[in-house]
């Protein structure tokens, strides 16, 4: 199966609201946050799913260390 690709517009539909899955992009990789309790309803510490959060994660206390635990669903193009 080919890897799924997302434009920023397509990614924005995965905002975790109204039954949508919650996806975020970090450094071009799209991760599924849907079942991550800290991302309930597509929100986490003021951040909203469906966006490229590459710059935001650098300012977080955990940094990129959490990425290895997440499910990759595709690439941001």
TrEMBL record:
It comes from the Bacteria. Residues 6-77 form the Cytochrome b5 heme-binding domain. InterPro entries: Cyt_B5-like_heme/steroid-bd, Cyt_B5-like_heme/steroid_sf. Signal peptide: none annotated. SMART domains: Cyt-b5 (SM01117). Pfam families: Cyt-b5. This is Cytochrome b5. It comes from Paucilactobacillus suebicus DSM 5007 = KCTC 3549.
